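Thread title: Can someone regenerate the structure for this chain?

I was given the following input by a collaborator and told the matching structure tokens would be attached. They weren't. Posting the sequence so someone can regenerate them.
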Amino acid sequence: MIRLLTFTNLYPSDERPRHGIFVEERLRRLVESGRVSASVIVPVAGTFRTRTAERHGLCVSYVGFPAIRVVTSWINPLLLARCARAAVAEHVGRFGSFDILDAHYFYPDGVAGVRLARHFGRPAVITARGSDINVAAREPVAGAWIRWAARRCAAMIAVSEALRAAMIARGLPAGAITVLRNGVDLGRFRPLDRAAARASLGLTGPLLLSVGNLVPEKGHDLAIRALAQLPAVRLVIIGSGPQRAGLKRLASALAVADRLRWIAPVSQDELVRYYSAADLCLLCSSREGMPNVVLESLACGTPVVATAVGGVPEIVSAPAAGVVVARRIPDELAAACAAVLRAAPDRSAIRRHAEHFGWDQPVRRQVELLESIAAACRP
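Best answer:
Regenerated them for you:
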């Protein structure tokens, strides 16, 4: 039994139930294998005392650290590690020592995780998720820290082949990187009757779905501009964020506001209904690691039109799955949507494609990786 201590800010809480849900999902699957036990430490900006909760049978400690914005980014991983050290020591006193520290998101969490692991004499594994490599690693200070951590951790995980290539391009050692993609819960995300799903949601007509935070990198503005070129088509956007007001103004200016519905973030079970109701899911991101939205949509039998970012081409790899758009411009997105709507792909074929992306293989391979690291570190 591998005793795992997960360290990441990407983890759900009662206040933010969908934040980092993909990290929690993978960790739960590892524990369900019967070969891993785990607990979690989540650094959260704020000066509150450590609070502990139980989520799905796992002990999760939320550790406050001061958010000092004027301090240079050189301090961030040091500050994180220092503030979390007492929580890790308390964890060791309560549960016994851990075998491996499991850090998610390379900067600053992964760097701080390596420092914590070294302090407690344990190996660390870091999972890169996307913007930590595609954005942070390009910056001089953060990039230097990331390379420092990469040379001192026991292994690195990339969630797609594209992300592994980006890590190597940023100077991280290729031999230490293992690709373990995200999985999708094929039991939860499954095709529902489309007519029934639409009726329950009050949706009609050709329907596009765009899911994600309302932030520039998700490209919801491109989805709205593409909608303007698709007469009689409707669009549902699920998400929240700082761009909401600006996106609404854009929809009004393009005279598509009456064909657009805005939905606040919903539970995963509710998402299944929206995926099943839609004719296609539209992802217009400028960067991604391995987008769960694409995996979830395909598992529900709904094709995808998506920009060629991150691991998207590795998922949308069969004609039934949809179309990957080479250029991130509204004209090409609209043309791809129109082509998919005309083709009306077979939903059962889409589902069969998605079944290659369940959790069984990535969980088995990660357990094997963790066991090899633990064995190498035993005296």
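The chain has a mean pLDDT of 92.
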